Amino acid sequence: MKSESLKAGTGIEGLDDILVGGFRRGRVYLLEGSPGTGKTTIAAQFLLEGAKHGEPGLYITLSETEEELRETAESHGWTFGSPNAIFELVPPESLLDDQQQQSLLYSSDLELGETTKRIFEAIEGKSPKRVVLDSLSEIRLLAQSSLRYRRQVLALKHYFSRNDATVLMLDDLTTENLDKTVHSVAHGVIRLEETAPDYGAERRRLRVIKYRGQRFRGGHHDMVIETGGVRVFPRLVSGEHRTEFKRETISSNSPALDKLLGGGIERGSSTLVLGPAGTGKSLVTLTFAVQAVERGEKAALFIFDEELGLLFERARGLGIDLQALQDGGNLLIEQVDAAEMSPGEFSQRVRSCVESLGARTVVIDSLNGYQQAMPEEKQLVLHMHELLQFLNRQGANTFLTVAQHGLVGDMQAPVDVTYLADTVVLLRYFEAAGRVRRAISIIKKRTSAHEDTIREYRIGSDGITLGEPLTNFQGVLRGVPEWIGENTLLNDGLA
C-alpha cells in the first residue's frame, strides 16, 4: 500500500502541506477554535474532498441545523449530497417536555445517553469513512463533569476506530473552563485563532498543537476564509527550497549605475534601496525590472504604497511603458493592500510568482507598506529573512525599497533590514548652488567590490543620469554639504 493512501486529504492544499499529506486514516482529530474561526468550513471541505474519491461522509451536528449548514455550503458554491449526508441531532421531544422530566434522575443523564445512542445509530446506518462531529461543547455540557466527559469521548473514539472512520471533532471553546481532555485522547489537535487589528480586516491563523507519531510543519500559519472555502498559507521555511542556478552579474540599463555597483547585481542576491520620499527609489528598482524583461525574463512588482494608475503614468513620463510590458506577459504587477492581506498570504503570492510563473526579478515597493501588515517589527524582520533567503536560493534578484523619515539631515528608517540585504543603495537630497539635488552611493555590497564614491544623479525623461563623483564636497550624506573646492555638478542637459 502506498503511503499516500494512508492519509485522508483535507481538500485544502496549504493544510495538507502542513500535515504532510493530511490526516492519518482511522483516527480521531480535534479542530478547536472560537466561533468564526473557520471550523465548519474546514470540516465541510474535509467531507467534500472525501466525496471526490468516493468516500461516504457524515456531518453530525448538535449545534447548527441542517438548513443552516446547507446555506453555509451554498454560500461557497458547494452542495451536500451523496455520498455525504447531514445528521441533525436534536434532543428527543420527551426530554424537552417539562411534564416528562424525571424527578429521581437528572435529565442530563438521559440526554447524554440518548445523544450517544443516536450518534451510534447514525454511524451504523450509513457506514461513513469520514465523520464530522459538531460540536464537543454540547457533549461537554451534557456530561457536566470532566470525568464523564472524558469517558464519553473515549467511548466515541473506540467506536469510531472499530468502524475505520477518520473523525474530525469540532470544539468552539465556549465553555468557561477550557477542558484539555480531548487533547490527550485525540490523535492530532489543530487550533484556529482570530485576531482583530486596530485597523483593517480580521486576521486568522492556525497551528498544529500535536500530531501523534507524525512530523508536521510547526508554528503559526496564516489563513483566510473566502468564497470557495478556506485557504491556508504554510509558514515559509527557506531551508526547504533550493534551486541550482548560475551566479552571474546582472546589469541595469545605465552604464554609470553599473560602474557604481562594481559591474552590476549578482544573480540570486537582494538589494535594498534606502532614502527619503521622492528620491527615486522606485525608479531605481524599475530600472532593473525593465532590464530583466528586455533580457526575456519575467519580473514581478508588488506595489504597496502607490496607486497603479499613477505609477504607470509617472513611469511613462520617465520613458518606461509599464502597461506595454505588462501586456507582453513578462512583467507582473500587483497592487497590495497591507490592511487586507496577511504576511503569510503575501509570502505565498511572491513564492507563486517565482515557482509557478518563473519570475527571476522581484520588486517589493516598499517595506514601509509591508510593515503595516505586521503586528511587530521583530516579526517583520523574521518574515523578511525567510522570504529573502527563499528568493536568493531560487536564483531570483530581489529589490526592496524603504522610505526613511525626514528629507534632509538625520533620518531614521522605520525598520532596519540593512543587514539582511546583500547590497544597500543609499539615496540622499543635498543643497548646492541654490538647488535641491540628489546623490547616490553604495554603502554595502557583499558579493563584489564597488565604488565608494558619492555621485549626483538626475531623474528625467530618459531615466537616471549619473554625474562624476562629488570629490570637492563633504557632508553630502548629511544633506548640508560643505564646499571645499571646485566640483563638477550636473547641469541642465549636461552630465
Q: What descriptive keywords fit this protein?
A:
hydrolase, alpha/beta, hydrolase activity, 15 helices, 495 residues, elongated, Rossmann fold, phosphoprotein, 9-stranded mixed sheet
Give me the count of strands: 24
Largest sheet: 9 strands, mixed
Low-pLDDT stretches are 92-96, 98-107
CATH class bucket of the largest domain = Alpha Beta
Per CATH, the architecture of the largest domain is 3-Layer(aba) Sandwich
Give the CATH superfamily of the largest domain: P-loop containing nucleotide triphosphate hydrolases
Percentage of residues assigned to helices: 25-40%
What oligomeric assembly is this protein in?
single chain
**CATH topology-level fold name of the largest domain:** Rossmann fold
Biggest sheet, spatial arrangement of strands: 5-4-6-7-3-8-9-10-11
- Total number of helical segments? 15
- The gross shape turns out to be elongated
Secondary structural class: alpha/beta
Domains, number: 2
Straight-line N-to-C gap = 73 Å
Over the alpha carbons, how many angstroms does the gyration radius reach?
30 Å
Proportion of residues in β-strands? 25-35%
- Report the average pLDDT across residues: 86
